[in-house]
Amino acid sequence: MSKKLIWWLIVAAIGIPSLCLCGGAIYIGEVLPTSTPDPLALTSTPRPTRTTSPTRTTFPTRTPRPTRTATPDVGDRYTALVLCQELVSDRLKSPSSAIFAKGSESVMIESAPGVWTVSSWVDSQNGFGAMLRTSWTCKIEYEGKDRWQPLALDFE
Fold this sequence. Notes:
- By secondary structure, the protein is of the alpha+beta class.
- It folds into two domains: 1-41, no CATH class; 77-155.
- The protein is built from two helices and seven strands; from the N terminus they run αββαβββββ.
- Strands 3, 4, 5, 6 and 7 form a five-stranded antiparallel β-sheet that branches.
- A hairpin with a 5-residue loop joins strand 5 (115-125) and strand 6.
- The mean pLDDT is 78.
């Protein structure tokens, strides 16, 4: 028997906190005898055995994804709103004083594919410096590739 094994057996038999030189490492603490032949084993429970997997794995069938259809290039409502606001701003006496309605307060309708009708209001100064609220309606057409054509602009 080797000296290390004899030392471990003595320490294990005493069962008091002690020093153990097992497997080239030093362990400090109480060494308890175990039922496994390995003195460094933490538990005596056996390892689970690996089960064999079936030879053929079945996967759930997948539903094919629907194909994407191209959406027509008709512009969007918020671009139409901003461009109409620029048109209105060009016609004001004092464009720097303009306060436009929020987008949620404006009505933007696509009356035909690519043709937007926008109705809203603007507060701006008149020639005397007084703030006035003016309602307006703008009709603008999207021609494609970021090109827009104004069709009508009416102040009420």
